[in-house]
Amino acid sequence: MKKKLYSEAIYRLLIIVIAVFSALFVGAILLLIAKTNPLTAYYVMFTEPLSGKFGLTEILVRAAPLMLVGLGIAISFRSGIINIGGEGQILIGAIFGTFIALTFPDLPPYILLPLVFIASFIGGAIWGGIAGWMKAYLSVNEILSTIMLNYIAFQVYMFLIRGPMIDPKEVAYGTGVPQTALLSKNAWLTRIIPASRLHAGIIVAVVLAILVYIFLWKTTIGYKLRAAGAEAKAAKYIGVNVKNYLVLAMLLSGGFAGMAGAIEVCGVHHRALESISAGYGFSGIVVALFGGLHPLGIIPASAVFGLLIVGADMMQRSVTVPASIILAIQGLIILAIVSSQIFFSNIGLKEKIMIKLKLMKSGDKDDT
Amino acid sequence: MILDFIIGIISAGIPLAAPLLLAGLGEMFNQRAGVFNLGVEGIMLMGAFVGFLVVLTVGSPILGLLAAIAVGALMGLLMAVVTVKFKAQQGISGIGLFMLGWGLSGTLFRVYIGGITSITGIKPFSFPLLGKIPIIGEIFFQNNILVYIAFLLVPISWYVLNKTAWGLKVRAVGTNPQAADTLGIKVERIRFQCIILGSMMAGLAGAYLSIAQTHIFADNITAGRGFIAVALVYFGRWKPAGIMWGTLLFSLAHALQRSIQVYGINFPYEIAVIIPYLLVIVVLALSYKSQLLGPVALGKPFIRGSRE
Fold this sequence. Notes:
Chain A has about 375 residues and is mainly alpha-helical. Chain A contains 17 helices and no strands. At the A-B interface, α6, α12 and α14 of A face α3, α4, α10 and α12 of B.
């Protein structure tokens, strides 16, 4: 039996590795089109961030928001609702948190920081909840509504940091950079490694990941959420109010993305500014899928994509290919991962491949 | 004054409808065959970029449009392989395709062009005589050629879908693929054709934005129009005429929002820009009942021998 599980694990790993390699292979063709040697580009992307303290700490700086967004997305996907609105939820969360931090600058950190995170959670939850409610009660396609809410959130956010919430100094000096005032130090997340940007947010994210695992797999509500997502009709049968669970899933999912906004505000920038999200809302989808929609898979997955994002920045500097190529590569990885699912769901296909790989045979022998 | 304002909005709104219409009709074919292609936005971005690049280097708008259609076909092929051959979840695949198109168009733009440059592209022309009729001429007879093509595609799409053997197959595949399969219709082949056709139209729609509408290319130039086109397919109840009314409603709102800014009415810019997106959500919420009229097999991969 053990051997069978073992061969199953090898099979899974093999499929994922092949999927990612095919995405990187297509990515290499794209790099060639972008007049770049793919080998040097990939080499820089995958090794340079690992070669020093700066790179290593930056990977974790990026991993923290990715992890939170990825967790939120895993909660929604597991509950049968597809949240593409991470980007908007991050922004609304960031602005809610910033508002609290700017309003109560003198509260001691141990009160202010939790308040900021709660506010960000609420902001993101509202933004996600709108889409969840519309899905549940008006059957509005949640993918389209969350995308529209992304565009709306961006405009609302820009309006606020350009207008009512702009840093008074920007107005006084006439520079007019759209950003809020610097938060008081009480709202800053502690730097855990000196002379780097690595802050305590990564610890918060890992703790939350473990909590999400416990919530989804060890509590009744979590079980019902997953039941609603896996088989809505059956879930109704056992008395789950599927509609309410859809809304709950989106509230939680949005809330987690909102907290990613707080992490960026309190941990990295110490204010709300235009480029606060840096595409984490979309990258979070890749992280969640790559992590198998499982909190404990998302922890390492967020580090992997933290590496890719930092690597892409470094690639931009040394190989001079725009860092936006990483967005395209992430898109390819999504396509590859969703395509690879057929190798898990189609049992016939799976057995055929496993026999060819002689994984199944050894497993069976052990079984009998 | 008021009349001028209204005529201004209508004559500005009609050309704005063209890209939504092109992409929307294309998406309609996708969805009628049962495939939900959210990658339209990414395909439009690539179409806009490739079309622009060809016009900038070669100078021929027609070659630009053809190149955009070709790149659309290529991305459609990818989408078809992923969703039909590998039977992947369609919504997420679409987001992957969107990110691919967005990231790649942005990257290639920086590599090959670098900054904002403008091209002559396709200009509106005035019909002889007809264009001189007051009001009507201004609204209907002073547009660029693609606007007429887009609106002509409405009856053509209707005809193809409802009056040809191929259209019947498309509808069968989107409604009951299992039954279609038993009748010997090649479900996967029809879906491939529809996805690629829809993607070619999305590529053209993207090229419209850069070649005929703005005459520039900028990162993320589509600003959600691809997603809006998908939403309008729901609103239009999967019918060409319905989609046309949806795009018109939408582009008039867009033109209204623009003229609010032009006329200097005191209104925060960001809030005005929200209007179209808000409208999509409202439209989706209002048309929720129409979802029952949608293609039954929409979003479900076809697995031979399965009973669902």
